[in-house]
Known about the structure:
Layout: H1 2-16, H2 28-103, H3 113-127, E1 131-136, E2 141-146, H4 149-152, H5 158-167, E3 171-177, E4 183-192, E5 201-208, E6 221-222, E7 228-232, H6 248-254, H7 259-265, E8 274-277, E9 283-291, E10 296-303, H8 304-368, E11 372-376, E12 382-385, H9 387-393, H10 397-401, H11 405-408, E13 430-437, E14 443-455, E15 458-467, H12 469-497, H13 501-514, E16 520-527, E17 532-539, H14 544-548, E18 551-553, H15 564-571, E19 575-577, E20 600-608, E21 611-620, H16 628-667, E22 671-676, E23 681-684, H17 686-691, H18 704-707, H19 712-727, E24 733-740, E25 746-758, E26 764-773, H20 775-798, E27 800-806, E28 811-814, H21 816-822, H22 834-838, H23 845-857, E29 863-869, E30 875-887, E31 890-899, H24 901-923, H25 931-944
Antiparallel strand pairs: 1-2, 1-5, 3-4, 4-5, 6-7, 7-10, 8-9, 9-10, 11-12, 11-15, 13-14, 14-15, 16-17, 16-21, 17-18, 19-20, 20-21, 22-23, 22-26, 24-25, 25-26, 27-28, 27-31, 29-30, 30-31
Helix pairs in contact: 1-2, 1-8, 2-8, 6-7, 12-13, 12-16, 13-16, 24-25
Amino acid sequence: MLFVLVTTALLFLAIRRPWTPRGKRVGSRDLSAVDRRVQLGIGMSILVSAALGALQVRNVIDSHETEWSERLARIAGAEASRIERWLEERLRDAAALASELAADPVFIPSRRPAGAAARLDAYRRLTSYPALIVSDADGGVITTATAKTSDAGEPPRRGAIERALASGRPVFEEFGANDAGTGRYIDFVAPVSGAAGSAAHAVTLRADARDLRSGAPADATETDDGAEIRLFRLVHSSGNHPDATAGNGGTEANASNGLLARLARGDLPIGEVVEAIDRHGVPARAIALAVRGIDWHVLARVDRQVISSDIREHLSSTIVSFSIALILPFALGVLLTLRNRLRVMELVDRQREERVALSRHEDSLIQKARDMIFLLDDEERIVDVNESALAAYGYELDEFQSMTADDLRAPGAAGDRGGRPEEADRPQGALFETTHVRKDGTEMPVEVSSRFLDIEGRRFRQNFVRDITERRRDEDRIARLTRLYRALSECNQAIVRGRNRDALFEDVCRVVVEFGGMALAWVGVTDAERQRVVAAASYGAEGRGCVEHLGLSLDLTDPDERSLASVCTREGRVLWKHDVTDDTGAPPWRDFPGSAEWRASASLPIRLGERVEASLNVYTADPMAFADAEKQLLTELAVDVSYALEHITTRVELEQAEERWSFALEGAGEGVWDWDIAQGTVYYSTRWKSMLGYRDDEVGSTFEDWSERIHPEDRKPALDALERHLCSDDEEFSFETRLRARDGSWRWILARGKVIAFDPDGRPRRMIGTHTDITARKETEQALLEQTRMLEESQRIARIGGWTYDTGTRRMSWSTETCRIYGVDPTNLDDGVENFFAFADSRERAALRGWFDSLMAGEGPGETELRVMRPDGSVRWVNLRGVVEVDDGRRRAAGTVQDVTEWHAAETRMQEQLEELRRWYLVTLDREQRVLELKQEINSLLAAQSLPPRYETPAAGPEQTP
């Protein structure tokens, strides 16, 4: 069914997409194409149907073969399982009977044989077995219960009884072979244990093996599917099987080609479906399975003919579908052929009508065509033209008919471009360009497409002529633009290469002429002294020598001296002259060789900043050379040259400034370094290297040549300071560090620098700086610090502080000891002079101001004493001394501060003691009551004890002796 559907779908697609002709004309070829297409479709349908049909047949055969194999396996497996269940049921019955007999107190066969036989017969009737036999442990029959005397047969096998008694479980054993090779009877022996002290017995249930067939013949059973099942005991090839019989099974087992014979030889595997030949020579498919617990096998077989019949029955529907699939393409192909043939005929009729309609409009189309169409005979005479040719050339039809094709070609025209008229014989015809002349004498560039035609047996040539004046103009303009773009590119390269102004101007003139297509180019600069424009550079095959001696006046009021170059240079305007033939007077370039062919000129200013530095002047023979696009390109070129000139000027000035700067720094003893951060290189000047004792070739050009010479204690702070500067917006940085000199000593260096260039992302790109050797200054500072420290220590020991005051800066500085005397923190002390007065006692502040003003004026004494109030509220007596120096109109005062609080305390105590002594002598009288005399002695003593100046020790007089 699948291939029928596929074939129908293919044909449906073929019908659904009707045939369409490839060309505009339809004929017998198209009918053949239709037939070939239908035949191809039919062939493809048949091939597809055959392939799908063969695949379907193969699938049917394989599926039924597999189905029969699985069916045989299921039949054999079901039969083997049934036999196993039958054996297990009999074993359970034997065990149950043995248990009942063992539990029956009446059943003691050795003592009451008659009662035991009756009881056993009762059991037999209940179980429906042919015979029940009770035996002793030696195999002797004690009693028997049978349905028929013939069922008793042989006594139970002693071996079976011994196995049952030994294992304590029921066993079975077959005997009495039948025609299938299996036993006719099967004894199921179970051990029976009597009452205490009784001997062990065995009970045997004898079953007929024919019960396995449920009434069917013992040797074979046929299923509903046509399969045959056999139950047999495998007879070994040696023929020594103890229960082998000569029945049908034995005959087949011993046959050389039988299934059982192959099983006996081991050629037929157990549990696998195989193809074999039975003993009658009939092909069959079979499978053999072993029965668990007994030496039996189940053989299921089916004749090959049964399988083949089943397959043929199922293949009949497939063959019918395949036949339909083969017939259907032919039927549909015929219908398709008829339909397409009818379509071809319809197209033929339609095309015939279209040709008639086209023939009526052909003349109208030719006459109204925009291209000029000429029909020439074999002698190249013009036979006919269309209306466009009449309008374009200005001739009448009779005038054309008296002319040939060569009469239209311009006399001075160049050769044909792109082809030759003789190539019209080729299938694609000839295509070439030439120049024709109109009736009024003007020339017209044209493109001619020519081919030969056969009309009523005569050979004609048909020319399609197109006016390409606009195209030629566009091509020339594109060529000019291309040259100017090339000139702009070359000019930019010249700008990059240019090292000075003269070389730049020479390269620009050369590029404009060689690549821009100009006849002459020159650059004019201003001669300020002569007030004229002179040529700084020029280039051109003609007129170059004249330009070098050209001088144009900058006086624009004189018409004879006025020129584009002078106006451009004076006013800074871009000037274009599209037709120089209308210039009045005698232009300065009139005497140049070749100037008669010049038709256009231009002057463009070259600026240096806001000032016009020069003008670029160009001349060309093409009057259309300066269109809008050309003007823009030339203007861009002049702007680029202006930028390059500014760049060169800036570079020269920078180089000169760098030379002066480097000379000044080197002369001042400064070492210069220049760090290219992007490249990772550093330039170290000769002075920089000699500052550390190195020659030029002993220091490299890397950053590490500096950083590795930094003192270990200074390296991290120095690098951190540099990193902070690079990451911040600080304009400059400086730090002091120690660098290792060539002799191993350490030199103090003041490093200063500045970032002067950044990349587009704002990261530092270049940094320059200087190194100053400050070792001597550092040594002086160290000595000064040591002296200052010693002075402060001396002041601390003597308790004498110091102070200074400068009238120029109005700043007063106190020493550490002075701050200690006043009880203030030096770090929080204001350096103004008002603090000097603020600490004074309010009662003495005015006197202190007067003393200080007199001191600074050079009028007052240089010493005073006063009380000062400390921040903690305590009062101290201080002695102030000072001197004044005058230097260039500025006064500087310096002095000392001595804490005299203890002196004042001692003086106070002495005064108190003297007062006490005076009071004591006044109130004491001697024995003689000589008061007046005593008072005089005290007065003289007091007079003698008048205190001298504080810093001198008074000498004791004789009158002061007590």
